[in-house]
Amino acid sequence: MTEGLRERIRAGDREAFAQLYEEHARAVYNHAFRLTGDWSAAEEVMGDTFLDAWRGREQLEPGDGSLKPWLLGVATNKARNANRGLGRRLAFLARRPAPAPVADFAEESAGRIDDARQLAAVQAVYGRLRRGEQEVLALCVWSGLDYAQAAEAMGIPVGTVRSRLSRARARLRKLAEQRLAEEKKEPPRHRGEVQHEAAIAALPFQEFQEDPR
């Protein structure tokens, strides 16, 4: 079925491409957000990804494998370009008033708060990883690609994916643990101030502690 979809897309079948969009748009959007950290940029990356995919459909290799690595590879490149404008976006946001604090309208259990702190720590230090480490984590951990698929998406050897992912996991876990240790030394904050992005929070903290493969 996938092979038939590839051939139809290569031939310019718009219905087949619409099916591709329906199946993978959310994954491309989430991947773009994880790499850019910006919802607006992620929307633009997603749109550009499918536009480029349609324009380059004739270069799509025949076969029966998933088309997800191909799309995420395009999105990764688009996200790199989007991140070049990060400084300008941050400068703009710095001139805007700070958002109002989130209201505390519900009781949360201690375990839920601890999870939020762990996830917030991961989010806070994720940007300190090297670009390649961020990309391989986003592809293998969040987007669920295996080593071969991630290698296809990034255009690098499978062995490089394995070693880069191992280093990224170790660094992210160490940085997150350091962040949590530092927070313990700080005065407690109002629960409403513990914030984290939904896309980041969807990932269990334990994902970074060991490689399940």
From TrEMBL:
GO terms for molecular function: DNA binding; sigma factor activity. Keywords: Sigma factor, Transcription, Transcription regulation. Residues 20-88 form the RNA polymerase sigma-70 region domain. GO terms for biological process: DNA-templated transcription initiation. The keyword Transcription applies. Gene3D superfamilies: 1.10.1740.10, Winged helix-like DNA-binding domain superfamily/Winged helix DNA-binding domain. InterPro entries: RNA_pol_sigma-70-like, RNA_pol_sigma-70_dom, RNA_pol_sigma70_r2, RNA_pol_sigma70_r4_t2, RNA_pol_sigma_r2, RNA_pol_sigma_r3/r4-like, WH-like_DNA-bd_sf. It holds the Pfam family Sigma70_r2. Residues 123-172 form the RNA polymerase sigma factor 70 region 4 type domain. The keyword S-adenosyl-L-methionine does not apply. Signal peptide: none annotated. Belongs to the sigma-70 factor family. ECF subfamily. This is Putative RNA polymerase sigma (70) factor. It comes from Streptomyces himastatinicus ATCC 53653. The lineage of its organism: Bacteria, Bacillati, Actinomycetota, Actinomycetes, Kitasatosporales.
